[in-house]
Amino acid sequence: MTDDLVPEELRKAYTDKEILAIEKKHLVPAVGHYYEDPILFVKGKGAVLEDSAGKEYIDLFAGICTTITGYSHPKFVATIKWQAEQLVYTSSLYSTIPYALLIKKLAEIAPAGLTQSYIVNSGSEANEHALFMARKYKQNPYVVACHHAYHGRTTLAREITTAGWRTVPEAHPPGVRFAPNGYCYRCQFGKEFPECDFECARYLREIIRTETNRAIAAFIAEPIQGVGGIVQPPSDYFKIVHEIVKDFDGLFISDEVQTGFGRTGEKWWGIEHSGVEPDVVTMAKGFGSGIPIGGFMTRPEIAEDYTMTDSFATFGGNPLSCAAALAVIEIIEESNYVERATRNGGHFKKELEALKEDHRLIGDVRGQGMMLGIELVRDRTTKEPASEEMVKLMELCKEDGLLIGKGGFDGNVIRLQPPLELTTEQIDKACEIIDKSLAEIEKSI
Fold first, then answer.
1. pLDDT tens for residues 266-301?
2. Host domain of residue 350
3. Residue 319 sits in the same domain as residue 404
4. Residue 245 contacts residue 219 (beta carbons within 8 Å)
């Protein structure tokens, strides 16, 4: 394909001001920007993005934890180009080779017994469909989610989200219940781990006994909460929860939209670190490394009665997205990204913990693999969230060529969820920039 076949408008050189003016005129306010002075990105390679002025940035957020293989990976790009020349789309009403090969591959890397897949376009959709399937299978409307969770912005996914996104006067629908998450740094029970005896996990039993008909369709949780602020429960939290869920005849759904595909290191799936065998795994983000795709995996007996009358995704399972996802999985395997996330993530966390010793703004460092968080507080005793300082930090890091994410109920947690392509040299450079930026902020407080 030659460049002259590409629409002329796309081939033009634009300034950031020209593009921002178009956006301001034609976009609804729901499409916003992270920074006070928005950036116009035009290129990416590995873990680095380049803006319209030629400035480069180390990206520690990977387009919201999405570009897991990095930008412009040769195999990823070649696969998309090749598939686009063959077949971009035909609905799942017909069979295609990429869809069949993808679900076969997913069965090979899935947690034990999860051999049936359903492919959609996003994590929100994946969670919606998984919960609908669970309710139908169990003939029960009750779903339990965790405090500070984020599961998406579609109807039911929004209703099981408590990460601070309720902006209109509405009530949670019947059948939705919430349980404490294992957020040790801000324990809801005022306890200290491990003397707490996992009260947060055990409290689920009381919720189900008193707020349901003593049975549930499903419990859904992120192994490590992303939007909620990189909250990782202690080791046995999910084992206790899983036992309770099974006592009340429920399914255990692991939302792996952010933790999946090796991001947490050692394993393909975040929940595998807990030793729990989930009934359903939902996935998206890193699944397509930037190409829209999501889905879930489950057991045959659970999927058996989930039919075309229950669900349909027009673009779900399209050949282009499925081919891209296949390439992602192969890249992760061939480049040993799972092991790399373990090794580099360990180095990264050690460097962040060293920063904690030097900066009073850092209250907690947590996470695993390449999914790490730094909670900023104004006072380590009171743990008052340093929300304004977080905004300043993002801007200062950006000026020095570093992109970080923001999360937590109070917007005071640095989210570090970079491409797994990130190098140790880039990690060290990123820590230098964070160190410098925190020092500058602390001078004024």
1. 999 999 999 999 999 999 999 999 999 999 999 999
2. 12-69+337-442
3. no
4. yes
